Amino acid sequence: MVDLYTQYMNIKPEIDNAIQSVIKKASFVKGQEVTSFEKELAAYLSVNYVVSCGNGTDAIQLALMSLNLKPGDEIITSTFTFIATAEVIALLGLKPVLVDVEPDTFLINTEQIKSKITSRTKAIIPVHLFGQCAAMEAIMQIANEYKLFVIEDVAQALGSEYYFADGKTAKAGTVGHIGCTSFFPSKNLGCYGDGGACYTNDETLAKKIRSIANHGMTQRYYHHYIGINSRLDSIQAAILSIKLHHLEEYHRKRQEAATYYDKELSKISWLKIPTRVSWSNHIFHQYSLLIKENIRDAVKEYLLLHNIPSIVYYPVPIHKQEAYQIYGFKDDEYPHANYIAEHILSLPMHTELTMEQLQYIVQTIKEFKI
């Protein structure tokens, strides 16, 4: 699904030099590389502040912890996403309120958001799933109307562009109050371990997030907040700095692979290629098909027999997960997420896909017999 070794070999001298530089300094935590990477990422995103942390889950937790929320406050998010988005809401004693997704884009259904708002609602977490942005203008309009915070989950869409109706653009995660991302190795911008970051244009929020991530300290051994220990280490920061310089090229390669998939697969009657929204580009963290007939699992097994990996993202929406039944979610409120979970299948998508590989994958799919 992801060829990280070949990607490394293509930039090996840069990566090796960056790692050796950290080792020579022996400044493995809070080193200069972390500060430099945060500044470089802020410049790339055109955002005022970046605060790196241990992973993408911590990033969402840090964002929520910075908002002065109280136990029982409600946070609205999508039911069709990785569990971390709802997990941190629950861990903090807040209440996850789940919304269905659009049937074709898999992005949060903005029409349903309003119907879920109560007097306890404090924030919305839209998920920019698979590499393109949720409908942020509509979401921000709702948030402004009800005075809600917006935390963007950008773990799968770092670098994606949002297009405003007036022609302006902004990077994913910079439209709401706080953006949160992951640098898990398979992400479009991934390190060689765990890592994450929050970013914002709000100085007060940035300072508080940075403090909470460092045990709540405002200065050494003075703890103004109850915090956590969540840090991006210097080696990972050095690696990310190198890969950030290649990120636009990586996006282009993914988009080229997706264009080839589109062209070759669009006429197959039993599948549906990914739908693009008009308000965002797509940087294809995943290339996810909908298998129209009830043959998804058969297709997956067939591909595996031909040495082609594929993955189901996500087989069980959050509202169906056993750990979350305490919130009383009603299954019939999420028909699109339920359908998608039973029919979605993601094909290999990464920066090192060769034309030979793409042709083999496509031809194999074309030869599948219903």
Could you characterize the architecture of this molecule?
The protein is α/β, with parallel strands linked by helices and 370 residues long. It has two domains: 4-99 and 106-244, Aspartate Aminotransferase, domain 2 (3-Layer(aba) Sandwich), CATH 3.40.640; 247-366, Aspartate Aminotransferase, domain 1 (Alpha-Beta Complex). The chain has helices spanning 4-10, 12-25, 32-45, 56-65, 84-91, 110-115, 136-146, 203-213, 234-244, 247-265, 296-305, 335-343, 355-366, and strands spanning 49-53, 74-78, 95-99, 121-125, 149-153, 161-163, 169-171, 178-182, 196-200, 217-219, 222-223, 271-272, 287-291, 344-347. It has a seven-stranded mixed beta sheet, with helices on both faces. It has a three-stranded antiparallel beta sheet with strand order 12-13-14. Strand 2, helix 5 (84-91) and strand 3 (95-99) form a beta-alpha-beta unit. The longest helix has 19 residues, at 247-265. The radius of gyration is 21 Å and the shape is globular. The mean pLDDT is 97.
Describe the protein's topology.
Blueprint: H1 4-10, H2 12-25, H3 32-45, E1 49-53, H4 56-65, E2 74-78, H5 84-91, E3 95-99, H6 110-115, E4 121-125, H7 136-146, E5 149-153, E6 161-163, E7 169-171, E8 178-182, E9 196-200, H8 203-213, E10 217-219, E11 222-223, H9 234-244, H10 247-265, E12 271-272, E13 287-291, H11 296-305, H12 335-343, E14 344-347, H13 355-366
Parallel strand pairs: 2-3, 2-4, 4-5, 5-8
Antiparallel strand pairs: 1-9, 6-7, 8-9, 10-11, 12-13, 13-14
Helix pairs in contact: 2-9, 3-9, 4-5, 10-13
